[in-house]
Task: inverse folding
């Protein structure tokens, strides 16, 4: 595990602070800032994210006067800092002198100067000068005793379609395919006369070439998915360039960049090994995104094999980018911040420490508002959380999630399923994954979210919704899970295409067919308001649930039928199947988009078979998450509901927030949005990896015996 977080510094606690841009204010305001930061328990600030234009007014012109002063004042305060490479936005002189650094968009329009996060990743000028800037900054601040980490670039994303990118794409393709025959085969080029005879004939897929109706409608999925991969790799190269420049001056301070969770343009799994630790910006799309955030934290934690990550940004109050920007209700900041820690964050940072004076984020929330007040509700909540983190100290630092359930997430399947004609375009990959995740989350399962090539040995249950593309040995590794007694769950639209997006020339679900013992005879897609009733017998108590959008008509070939359609010409045909394996595990195939009750019925049956249902599964809005470190287990109870909840404690322990000693089975009442951080006192060291919390739980009423174990 990479030596990150507080262990590098005197701060043996969850790091707390955020993006700090004092260069926007006069010096006397800096004094006010630091006085307020002391009140709020702020120990870490991120500097210089957008300072390219402040530091450099020309190619050979670097001036660190202001940044030096900022660093000096921060250092004086005893705080540590995360230093950015300042390449998050281009300065005007650069775009003016070298128009090639500006991106060309999907419609083929070369942009002129403006905004941020918009450099052409394959511009030689951008690559040279961004790396040079990173190097200059590293040279200046490497070795500073209060330097905690490097923050490279900022929220990488988007795409460019310029000539430099086209040339780099051809190079990328040559490396991937070596020869044009292989490329033509991968892209199935004989369809519509696309056989390429020279690399120079290849142009980026965009509105001027293969696409119509935007990013998802392409004549050739092969070239489009390769361009997505290539763009992700191009921006990764920018990260790698800057990191290499840093490493010339600083061999060891960990480096990261701030990811954006489920962000489609970049395959974070392909980036992960280049980061020393993962970090991400948590701006949920709605105010009831607790399940989604739990998922995203797990996805981010999964990037580095379960190591702790940082929340690099969240807003203390409002965001500015929505049409309607609600404040975080009382208690929500605390609840969501502890949720991130519960899922593995060792740092909780804000965007931003003080509200901008002007420009598009001047109303974005901040620890300090324009007036610099410390007597507001928002500041008080920030300061109370700071005090919480100080109180809890190092209790959870470095601790990991004891998960025996894995949920697979795959950018290739996301891309391939959404750029394809002939499926149901109203079905979105993230929504399907989140639907399965929610059922796991409500059941209080400790979960890892993993790439499809991750080792699956430690998992009893592997859930792989909409696994559209099957690459490498994924099918064999899923099979191995069932052979050693574990269970696998997958859904419709899985096992459809190979790594090139070409269909398998076999029954659907292709390489997964033998695992599930099922064959898809037909796939019906219907508008979302058309409902088919599904009778489930064998996933909990016999019941009828509903399904929409996608209806695969299944033929069981070795599997037993668990769910059947109730309507349309396929009434009575199989919709959900289960294949049992001699070692006791099962492979479940869900051929339709079940409603939440249907998904929960299937997943709770699977989880119950493996005794993985959490202790508070009867309270879906009470989240349960565990971090463990050696023999110490810390359980987090997070009440997302607007009403109080009372439960019997699953284990004895001490609530690190209130100091209250809790006995096992004692009634615990959590107010709306309240949090309990229970350091368990009946640790179960070495109990063969069994989750003590789960031991306390009777198998749920809908559990059933697999019968053949
Ligand atoms: C992102 C950026 C920040 C800021 C915030 C606003 O996360 O990294 O610079 O723009 O969004 O929410
Ligand atoms: Zn470009």
Result:
């Amino acid at each position: 595990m990479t030596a990150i977080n507080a262990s590098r510094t005197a701060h043996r606690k969850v790091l707390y602070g955020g993006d700090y841009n004092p260069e926007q204010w006069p010096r006397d305001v800096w004094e006010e800032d630091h006085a307020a930061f002391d009140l709020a328990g702020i120990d870490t600030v991120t500097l210089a994210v957008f300072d390219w234009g402040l530091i450099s007014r020309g190619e050979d012109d670097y001036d660190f006067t202001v940044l030096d002063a900022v660093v000096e004042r921060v250092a004086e305060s005893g705080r540590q800092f995360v230093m950015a490479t300042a390449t998050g936005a281009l300065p005007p002189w650069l775009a003016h002198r070298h128009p090639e650094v500006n991106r060309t968009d999907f419609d083929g329009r070369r942009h002129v100067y403006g905004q941020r996060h918009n450099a052409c990743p394959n511009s030689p000028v951008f690559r040279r000068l961004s790396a040079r800037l990173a190097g200059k900054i590293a040279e200046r601040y490497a070795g500073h005793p209060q330097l905690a980490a490097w923050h490279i670039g900022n929220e990488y994303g988007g795409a460019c379609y310029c000539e430099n990118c086209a040339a780099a794409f051809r190079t990328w393709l040559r490396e991937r395919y070596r020869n044009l025959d292989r490329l033509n085969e991968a892209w199935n080029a004989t369809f519509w006369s696309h056989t390429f005879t020279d690399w120079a004939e290849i142009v980026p897929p965009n509105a001027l070439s293969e696409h119509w109706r935007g990013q998802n409608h392409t004549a050739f999925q092969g070239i489009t998915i390769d361009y997505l991969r290539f763009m992700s790799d191009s921006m990764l190269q920018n990260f790698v360039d800057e990191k290499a420049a840093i490493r010339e001056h600083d061999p060891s301070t960990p480096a990261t960049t701030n990811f954006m969770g489920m962000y489609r343009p970049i395959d974070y799994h392909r980036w992960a090994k280049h980061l020393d630790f993962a970090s991400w910006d948590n701006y949920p799309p709605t105010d009831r995104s607790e399940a989604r955030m739990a998922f995203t934290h797990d996805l981010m934690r999964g990037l580095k094999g379960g190591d702790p990550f940082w929340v690099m940004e969240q807003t203390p109050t409002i965001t500015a980018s929505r049409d309607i920007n609600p404040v975080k209700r009382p208690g929500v900041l605390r609840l969501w911040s502890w949720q991130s820690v519960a899922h593995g964050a060792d740092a909780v940072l804000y965007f931003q420490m003080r509200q901008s004076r002007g420009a598009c984020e001047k109303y974005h929330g901040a620890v300090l508002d324009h007036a610099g007040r410390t007597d507001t509700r928002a500041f008080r909540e920030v300061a109370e959380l700071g005090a919480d983190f100080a109180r809890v100290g190092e209790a959870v630092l470095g601790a990991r999630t004891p998960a025996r359930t894995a949920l697979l997430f795959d950018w290739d399947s996301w891309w391939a399923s959404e750029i394809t004609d002939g499926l149901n375009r109203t079905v979105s990959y993230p929504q399907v994954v989140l639907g399965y995740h929610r059922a796991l989350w409500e059941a209080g399962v400790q979960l890892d979210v993993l790439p499809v090539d991750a080792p699956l040995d430690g998992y009893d249950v592997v859930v792989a919704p909409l696994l559209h593309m099957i690459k490498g040995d994924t099918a064999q590794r899923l099979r191995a899970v069932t052979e050693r007694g574990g269970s696998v769950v997958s859904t419709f639209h899985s096992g459809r295409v190979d790594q090139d997006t070409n269909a398998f020339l076999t029954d659907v679900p292709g390489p997964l067919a033998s695992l599930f013992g099922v064959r898809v005879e037909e796939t019906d897609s219907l508008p979302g308001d058309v409902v088919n009733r599904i009778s489930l017998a064998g996933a909990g108590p016999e019941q009828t649930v509903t399904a929409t959008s996608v209806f695969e008509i299944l033929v069981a070939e070795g599997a037993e039928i668990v769910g059947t359609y109730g309507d349309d010409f396929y009434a009575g045909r199989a919709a959900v199947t289960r294949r049992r394996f001699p070692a006791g595990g099962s492979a479940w195939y869900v051929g339709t988009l079940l409603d939440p009750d249907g998904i929960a019925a299937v997943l709770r049956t699977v989880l119950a078979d493996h005794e993985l249902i959490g202790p508070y599964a009867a309270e879906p809005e009470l989240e349960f998450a565990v971090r463990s470190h050696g023999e110490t287990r810390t359980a987090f109870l997070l009440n997302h509901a607007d009403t109080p909840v009372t439960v019997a404690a699953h284990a004895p322990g001490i609530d690190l927030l209130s100091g209250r000693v809790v006995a096992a089975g004692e009634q615990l009442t959590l107010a709306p949005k309240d949090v309990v951080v229970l350091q368990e006192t009946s640790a179960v060291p070495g109990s063969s990896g069994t989750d003590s919390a789960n031991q306390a739980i009777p198998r749920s009423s809908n559990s059933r015996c697999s019968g053949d174990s």
Remarks:
- Residues 221-247 form the longest helix (27 residues).
- The chain is about 30% helix and 20% strand.
- Residues 154-155, 281, 283, 313, 319, 321, 351, 361, 364 surround alpha-D-galactopyranose (ligand 1) (CB under 6 Å).
